[in-house]
Every structure is written in C-alpha cells, then in structure tokens.
C-alpha cells in the first residue's frame, strides 16, 4: 500500500507528531510505481489553470495597487508574475510531452509553487501595509480567499500547500500587526485560524486522495493479473488471444480472431487494432489505454462486422519478449454483444416504464427514500398519488392500443403541470406518482394537484375519438403525514382512496381521520402473531411445468392466511407485516417444514420451491433450520429450491453471500426471483452463481402483444443459458405466451394457464394407495380447478390474491 516517512525532527508517536497529523501525508508507492504516483499528483495539481490564474491575478492586482503603489513596484510585480507564468508554461509542456520523468517535473512544480508564494506574499504584504485604510476592508477578504484557494488546489503536495498558506498568512498578519488597531488584529486572527484550519483540511484531503489512488492501483493490478492468467488457460471459452506491438499493430492473429472479425490473417497482420472499431468514446478510451503502460480489463468497444453492430470486450497487459529487447501487448477479446444488449434493455426496463419513458416504481421508491435521507429538520416533501378514473373504460372501448395512448397522454399532461425538479413516475397500470422536494408551501402543492385534475379533464383525441381520462389525486406531506417514505406513500394512498370516495376527478389531502386504516393494520399485526399457533396459515402449491414436455417438474409453495373473521388475507398484505415485525422468521421456518413434509409424499422427481424473505436471509439460524427440516423430512437436498429476490443481495452483506454459498454446498438449488425488476440485476448474477432465474410476470405478460417485451424475455433467457442457469417464466396465462416460450431455451413455465395455487389435498402427485399419479400438465387437462381461458385466469388470479 503506502508507507510513512516521518520527519527526523519529530518522533513518531509523540504528542507533536499526533497534533501535526504527520502520519497522514507521507505516502510513497513501490519502486515500479514511483513515476505513476508522480503523474497522479501532477494531474491533480494541473487541473487548476495556473497560467491563466497567474496572468489574471497579476493583472487585477496591478490595476488595484496602481492607486496607491509606485510604478516601480507595479512593474516589478508584473515582471515576476509573468516570469512565473512562463515557468508554468514550461511545466505544462514537460508534463504533456512526457519526455522528462514525472518525478523531476513534480519537483519543478514544488519550486514554482514556492516562487509563486514568495512573489505574491511579498507583493501583497507591501500593498497591505501601504494601502489606504478604507481599502483594507476589501483587500483582507481577498487575501484570505487567495490563501484558501491556493492551498486547497495543492492537496497533492501538502507540504508545499502549507508553505504557501504560511507565506500568504504571514503576508497578511505582519502588515496588519504593524498597522495595529482592533480591526487589523481581528483580521490577523482570522488569517491565523485559517492557517490552522487549512492544516487540518489539507492533510486529511491528501490522505483520502493518496490512499484511494494507491489502494485502487494495487487492487486493480492484482485483479487484472489473476483474470488474465485465468483467461490464458480458458481454451474452451469464447475468448480469443491477441497480440499487438507497443504501437498497436496486430501480431500473429489466431484463427478464432480471424473468424470473429470476418477478415483473413493477411488482412489483420500488421493492421492497427484501433482500425477494427468505428469512432466512439470507447474507441478513444482504447487508444488512450494503448498509449500507457497500465494493464486494462474488460474494456467494451463497439464495431461493425459485415454491417452488424457488435461489442468486443478487451483485456490486455504489456509483456516483455524473452530476449528482453521489446515490449508488446498481450490479451484476450470476447464477443459480449448479447450481454451488452441484454444489460442495456434490462437496465432500462428496471428503472423506466417502456411505454411512457417515466421512472418506474423501483426508481421512484429509491428516489423518495433518498429524499427523506436528505430531509432537514425544517424540510418538507410532497407526494401526489394519481389514479386515472376512466382508464378501464378507455381500455375496454378502444382496446390496448387506445389504453397505451391514454397513458402516454396522461404522462405528458402530468409532466407539464408539475414544477421544475419534480419527479413524475408511472407506478403501474394507470397509477402515477409525483415527488416534489422542498415545495414552497402546501398551498402550491395543492394548486399543482388541481392543475393536473383540470388538465386530465380536458378531452383527448385517441384513435380519432374524443375521450376524457380524468384523475383522482391523493396528497401527503412528509414528515408530517409519515416519518419515512413508506408511511408517506401509505398516507397518499389513503388520501387517493378518499378522493375516489368523494366522487373522483378531484384531489384530497391526507388528514388524521384517514389514520383509522393504520389502526386496522396494527390489529392485523396482532392477529398475525397468533395465526401460526392457531393453525390459520396454510400452504398452497402451484406447479412448475417443463417447457418442452409440458410435464410437472415441481411445485412452488405459496403461503395463505385464513383469518377467522376477515377470511382470506392477501399475502401482499400480511407478508410485509410479517417482515416488518420479524414474525417472518418463525413463519418461514414453518413453511420450510411443511413444504418439505409435503414433498416427501410426492414422486422423487418433483422439486419444491420455497421463497426466502430478505429478513429470513439475515437470520443466523437459517442454515441450521434448513438442515434440520431436510433431515426431518428425508427429502434429498437437490429437490429443495430456495427462491430469493434481488433485495437480499442489495444489502451487500458478505455474511449473506457466505450463507447462500453454504446452503448451495448442501446441494440445495438457489433461484433468483423477479429477475429484472430490481436496481441492477446483472450485477447480482456476478455476485452469486444462481442455479435458476425466474423471469418476472411483468415481462412475460406482454410477450404476445409487444415485440419489446418478447425481445427482453429472449435476451434474459439467452443470458441465463450463457451462464449455465435454468429459467422459469412466471405468469403464463394464455396459449400465445406458452407457444412463444416453447421455441426458446426457457426451462420451465408457471402460471394460471396450467393451474392456480391449490391446497396440498388437491395435488395429483400425492402418493396414493393405488400408486397412481398424474405427471402431465396441459392447458386442457390439468389439476383442478382448471383454467381454460385468459379471462378466467385473470379473474382467478384476482380472487386468489
């Protein structure tokens, strides 16, 4: 990493050593990196345009000092200022040409900094002493400002920065002390305090700058070396080796390189590698990397091969020939076109609504939580929950095309009504939300809501027909209507419900009378605490169907709550409550026991899938619970599949990742549920080697009607296949979706087309006395109750929660 060189005058560990923070500023890399470290410091220093700064500062000072200083003084100051500016030009030329060692150039910079400090210090000291009293009020703040600006710009050379600050401080305090007076003494005190503050600030900023650069370099070098060594032995992969001269000319192109580029070996031999790629920022980055000695890894660059746009990922390092006479580049190239395209699509769909180009629920949720994190003691955020009143009628009358047009019109009208900086998001279906941070007043927010209502009420032309969209709006303010984002969202939803109850096409502000719903929720929490002991919880099972054979491959266990007075309570209602109260740990253990006990009654080829809550994943006893349940049931480990969502990995908890590896080592299958709906799905595929990806129903639902949804699903399946992961498509509700999936490499399907989730007693695969079991699942012949058409499937899903 880095080492400290302490001053011989001050012993390490002494009180003065600690007070001066000397341990923070002495950093030096390994011998091979000395030039690189000097270049890093030079780059940071030279961000400041010193030549322009010197010219401007000297010119402005000359104009000001001309009013009370002699022309000889002005001429001397200008001459020395221009001379220092000339030195700066020389430094910039040395740095850019890179003819001279960076270490020598850095030493020159330190000397020029000292000259600049002395020149300005002497000039400003004389001017401060001789200036008329009325001008001191202007000169003192300017001098202190210059002191701060110059010191902070030099954090890469902290000693020079403090010498500069000391000289500038003395140039201010000495003449003011000689002048005397309370005002002068106060200004001198400010200069002294500024020097002390700068000492603390510069040393700590330098520590952060140095440690970050040095650590990053070591980590990068280690990672690059390991990856390149692994790639060299990966002969069966899709990568291919390449070699280039130090100037970038291709050497000895391999057969795979020729095939991938669509060129012959004769064409490639001696060609500039850069000439394979078209102009792009990535190509410029490759050119820049090629002009340096640093290794680089997985640099993706676009190109066209036979008119088709492709992406190549390039990793390379400089090596020396065996005779030691020359250096050249050696590395690997991989075609990552499908992965790049899939990542672009999934990343977009994960954060934005494809139809309206508005942020989606996931991005909106993240943004409002961050808004609460930034909320000060007197700050306020406003949330508008918007629901279109007549969307269903438009959808029924004009079809899905008309409904999509209505949603686009609604999105644009909302955007036109909100103030600058407000965030408009489509939460789902015909629901929108608006987030306004730091609104001017409650009244202004209410005005915005009424503007949206009025704008929506205006007729819209959809497919040549006039239609009114109309909207109801619920308004809530944080932190007054809720201490966190979830509570304010809930308050806005309650206000929206109130607006609909008051006749729709209006806006309603949350008030205390709506909090009765919160009381009801607390009662639900209490009831849930007793539900397990009272036997009110039950597992239903939904089949997982093999895509090609249409045979049942297993079942997913889904939790249901039969409340004694409320009836069936939706999992969407009680699962979040169980997670928030911690009851999910005990409930989850019960689900594992029950599901495995039920699976022990099935044929041996059937698997059972159990969802693991993010709260469960943080439980230290989860591993022991899984082992105990498996041992008690006698079910082989490979028949158990645990489904986790991306929120489990968003915690970036090393203990959670380690736990998943331990569970997987047992032979238990791990699946990633709701893939593509989270914040950065592809990153999670690198974080853990999942056995299966479950494609969320939001992607599958529109496959038959929308080409973009079909493309996204196919991209996810292709990506999973490339990573040796199986896939399950959720939400199959009609034969069209099934037919589209059967021509892909999708492993399994799940949805109402085959069966809704049913109690264990209705499963056809239970081992009966006669030994007969039904193993084939078809849309026309499946376990009761059968779902024979799309409308019935949708209605059954709604009634089943």
Overall description:
The chain has about 800 residues and is an alpha/beta fold. Helices cover about 50% and strands about 15% of the residues. The chain has 28 helices and 22 strands. The chain has an 8-stranded mixed barrel with strand order 13-14-16-17-18-19-20-21. It has a 5-stranded antiparallel sheet with strand order 2-1-5-4-3, with helices on both faces. Helix 4 (about 70-95) packs antiparallel against helix 5 and helix 5 (about 100-130) packs parallel to helix 7 (about 160-180).
Shape: globular
Distance between the termini: 56 Å
Number of helices: 28
Roughly what percent helix? Answer: 40-55%
**Count of strand segments:** 22
Quick structural summary:
It is built from 28 helices and 22 strands.
What topology does this entry show?
Blueprint: H1 15-19, H2 34-45, H3 50-65, H4 71-97, H5 102-130, H6 133-153, H7 158-179, H8 182-232, E1 240-245, E2 250-251, H9 255-261, H10 265-268, H11 281-290, E3 296-305, E4 308-320, E5 327-335, H12 337-351, H13 361-373, E6 381-388, H14 391-417, E7 423-428, E8 431-437, H15 442-457, E9 460-462, E10 465-467, E11 471-478, H16 485-501, E12 507-509, H17 516-531, E13 537-546, E14 552-563, E15 567-569, H18 571-581, H19 584-599, E16 607-611, H20 614-617, H21 622-633, E17 640-644, H22 646-650, H23 654-665, E18 669-675, H24 681-687, E19 692-695, H25 697-700, H26 707-722, E20 726-729, H27 735-742, E21 748-749, E22 758-759, H28 790-800
Parallel strand pairs: 11-12, 14-16, 16-17, 17-18, 18-19, 19-20, 20-21
Antiparallel strand pairs: 1-2, 1-5, 3-4, 4-5, 6-8, 6-11, 7-8, 9-10, 13-14, 13-21, 13-22, 14-15
């Amino acid at each position: 990493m880095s080492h400290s060189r302490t001053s011989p005058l001050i012993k390490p560990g002494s009180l003065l050593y600690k007070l001066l923070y000397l341990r923070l500023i002495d950093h030096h890399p390994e011998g091979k990196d000395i030039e690189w470290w000097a270049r890093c410091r030079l780059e940071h220093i030279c961000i400041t345009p010193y030549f322009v700064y010197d010219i401007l500062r000297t010119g402005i000072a000359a104009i000001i000092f001309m009013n009370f200083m002699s022309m000889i003084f002005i001429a001397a100051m200008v001459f020395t200022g221009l001379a220092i500016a000339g030195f700066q030009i020389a430094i910039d030329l040395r740095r850019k040409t890179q003819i001279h060692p960076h270490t020598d150039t850095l030493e020159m910079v330190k000397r020029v900094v000292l000259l600049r400090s002395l020149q300005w210090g002497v000039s400003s000291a004389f001017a401060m002493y001789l200036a008329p009293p009325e001008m001191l009020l202007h000169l003192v703040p300017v001098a202190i400002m210059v002191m701060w600006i110059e010191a902070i710009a030099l954090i890469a050379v902290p000693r020079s920065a403090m010498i500069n600050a000391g000289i500038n401080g003395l140039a201010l305090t000495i003449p003011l002390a000689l002048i005397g007076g309370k005002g002068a003494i106060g200004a001198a005190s400010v200069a002294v305090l500024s020097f002390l503050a700068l000492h603390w600030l510069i040393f700590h900023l330098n520590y952060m700058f140095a440690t970050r650069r040095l650590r990053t370099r070591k980590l990068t070098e280690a990672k690059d070396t390991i990856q390149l060594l692994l790639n060299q032995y990966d002969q069966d992969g899709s990568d291919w080796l390449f070699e280039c001269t130090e100037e970038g000319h291709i050497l000895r192109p391999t057969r795979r390189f020729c095939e991938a580029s669509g060129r012959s070996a004769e064409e490639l031999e001696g060609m500039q590698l850069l000439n394979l790629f078209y102009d792009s920022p990535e190509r410029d980055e490759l050119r820049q990397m090629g002009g340096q000695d640093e290794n680089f890894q997985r640099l993706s660059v676009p190109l066209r091969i036979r008119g088709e746009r492709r992406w190549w990922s390039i990793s390379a390092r400089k090596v020396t020939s065996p005779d030691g006479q020359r250096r050249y580049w050696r590395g690997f190239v991989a075609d990552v076109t499908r992965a790049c395209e899939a990542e672009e699509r999934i990343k977009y769909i994960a954060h934005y609504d494809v139809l309206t180009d508005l942020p989606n629920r996931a991005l909106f949720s993240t943004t409002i939580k961050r808004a609460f994190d930034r909320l000060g003691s007197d700050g306020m955020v406003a949330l508008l929950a918007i629901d279109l009143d007549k969307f269903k009628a438009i959808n029924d009358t004009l079809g899905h095309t008309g409904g999509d047009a209505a949603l686009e019109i609604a999105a644009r009208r909302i955007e036109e009504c909100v103030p600058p900086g407000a965030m408009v998001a489509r939460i789902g279906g015909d629901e929108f939300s608006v987030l306004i941070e730091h609104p001017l007043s409650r009244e202004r927010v209410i005005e915005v809501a009424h503007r949206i209502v009025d704008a929506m009420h205006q007729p819209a032309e959809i497919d040549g027909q006039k239609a009114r969209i109309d909207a109801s709006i619920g308004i809530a303010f944080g932190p007054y209507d809720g201490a966190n984002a979830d509570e304010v969202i809930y308050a806005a939803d309650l206000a929206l419900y109130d607006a609909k109850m008051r006749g729709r096409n209006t806006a309603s502000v949350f008030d205390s009378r709506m909090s009765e719903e919160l009381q009801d929720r607390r009662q639900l929490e209490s009831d849930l605490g007793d539900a397990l002991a009272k036997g009110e919880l039950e597992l239903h099972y939904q089949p997982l169907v093999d895509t090609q054979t249409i045979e049942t491959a297993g079942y997913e266990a889904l939790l249901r709550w039969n409340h004694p007075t409320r009836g069936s309570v939706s999992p969407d209602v009680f699962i979040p409550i169980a997670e928030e109260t911690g009851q999910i740990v005990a409930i989850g253990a019960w689900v594992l026991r029950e599901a495995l006990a039920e699976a022990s009654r099935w044929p041996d080829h059937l698997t059972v899938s159990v969802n693991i809550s993010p709260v469960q994943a943080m439980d230290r006893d989860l591993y022991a619970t899984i082992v105990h349940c498996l041992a008690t049931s006698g079910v082989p480990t490979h028949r158990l599949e645990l489904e986790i969502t991306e929120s489990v990995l968003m915690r970036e908890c090393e203990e959670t990742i380690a736990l998943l590896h331990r569970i997987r080592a047992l032979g238990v299958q791990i699946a990633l549920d709701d893939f593509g709906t989270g914040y950065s799905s592809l990153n999670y595929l690198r974080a853990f080697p999942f056995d299966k990806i479950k494609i969320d129903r939001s992607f599958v639902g529109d496959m038959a009607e929308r080409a973009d949804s079909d493309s996204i699903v196919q991209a996810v399946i292709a990506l999973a296949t490339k990573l040796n992961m199986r896939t399950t498509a959720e939400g199959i509700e009609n034969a069209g979706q099934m037919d589209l999936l059967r021509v892909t490499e999708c492993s399994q399907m799940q949805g109402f087309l085959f069966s809704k989730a049913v109690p264990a007693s209705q499963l056809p695969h239970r081992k009966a006395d006669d030994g007969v079991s039904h193993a084939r699942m078809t849309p026309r012949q499946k376990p009761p109750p059968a779902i024979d058409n799309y409308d019935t499937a949708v209605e059954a899903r709604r009634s089943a929660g």
